[in-house]
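User: I'm preparing a small set of examples for a lab meeting where we compare how different chains pack in three dimensions. I only have the primary sequence for this one, and I'd like the structure in token form so I can line it up with the others. Please keep the answer compact; I'll paste it straight into my notes.
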Amino acid sequence: MARYRELIQYITIESLGFNIEQSLYRCARKLDKFYIPTRYPDAIGLGSPFESFDEDDFKIARDCTARIIDFVSSALRDVKDN
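Assistant: Understood. Below is the structure token output for the 82-residue chain.
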């Protein structure tokens, strides 16, 4: 079901004429890995989230978030202008 949902989202975005780089999808996957363990502290098992993530993880999340926000902002401007 998840692959179907992903495919539908991909087709919808592509059908609107937006070209999404594979690196943006990689960023989304990286961010997805942070969701559960940072939201639910007992999901990690041993230790707390602050013990499991470091500054490098923060930089990856920050940079990927900025790239996705930039893409969405640009896409919204394009849609608004057309």
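A couple of notes for your slides: The chain has four helices and no strands. The helical segments are 2-15, 22-39, 49-52, 55-81.

User: Perfect, thanks.
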